[in-house]
Write a structure and sequence with these properties.
The chain has 143 residues and is mostly helical. The chain has one domain. The protein is built from 5 helices and 5 strands; from the N terminus they run αβββααββαα. Strands 3-4-5 form a 3-stranded antiparallel beta sheet. Strand 1 and strand 2 form a beta hairpin. Helix 2 packs antiparallel against helix 3 and helix 3 packs antiparallel against helix 4. The longest helix is centred in the last third of the chain and has 14 residues. It starts with 8 loop residues before the first helix and ends with a helix.
Length: 143
């Protein structure tokens, strides 16, 4: 979302932590069930979230790990069903999509990652803070 530049060490550290701590079978989990405060209290586990996995591919590309980003992206795109749709989650053990199908967030994450991996510039707006208190009307500054 461009609130920090890709070359900021905090971004690389966060991407590295997600890659290290939330990857399972090459896909990204929302959290590790049963891992302390992330325990959702529900029995069983859940599949890997495809949107999170596409976000990781996008972030890997952003921090310069292009080959890994492309490899993950290609693997995720190959999961689409016979009409090109993606579900919310993927269960690597059963090798099938699970959860809400089709899932808009999965497709949106795919599109954004595809744009960035292809070299397109981010469509995310630049964050601008209003200037308040410099002789300008507060409501005008918020527009």
């Amino acid at each position: 979302m461009r609130f920090l530049p890709w070359d900021d060490p905090r971004v690389a550290g966060t991407v590295g932590a997600i890659d290290r701590d939330l990857r399972a079978d090459g896909f990204v989990l929302r959290y590790r069930p049963g891992a302390g405060s992330s325990d959702d209290g529900l029995p069983g586990g859940e599949g890997a979230f495809l949107a999170c996995s596409f976000w990781l591919a996008d972030a890997l590309h952003g921090i310069g790990r292009h080959d890994e980003a492309t490899e993950l992206f290609d693997r995720l795109v190959a999961l689409a069903n016979d009409v090109g749709l993606l579900a919310e989650e993927y269960d690597p053990g059963r090798r099938q999509q699970v959860g809400n199908t089709p899932q808009a967030f999965s497709h949106l994450a795919l599109i954004n990652a595809a744009r960035h991996l292809s070299g397109a510039r981010s469509a995310a707006p630049t964050l601008r803070m209003p200037r308040v208190g410099r002789g300008r009307d507060h409501k005008a500054a918020m527009r």
